[in-house]
Amino acid sequence: MSRYAVLGGGGVFAIHFVKYLLEQKDTEFVLSIGRNPPKSEAFTLGVGNGDPRYRYEQVHLVFEQSRLFELFDQYKPEYVVNFAAQGYTVSWKSSFLWYETNVVALAKICEYLIGCNYLKKFLQVGTSELYGPVNHPANERSSINPTTPYAVSKFAFDMHLQVLWEAKNFPMNIIRPSNAYAPGQQLYRILPKAVYYGLTGRKLPLEGGGVAKKSYMHAHDLARAIFMVLEKGRLGEVYNVGPDKPVTIHHLVELVAERLDLRFEDLVELVPGRKGEDSQYWLDSSKIKSELDYKEAVSLEQGVEDMISWGRKYLNLLHDEPCTFTLRA
Question: Which H/E stretch holds residue 230?
Answer without folding.
Answer: helix 219-232
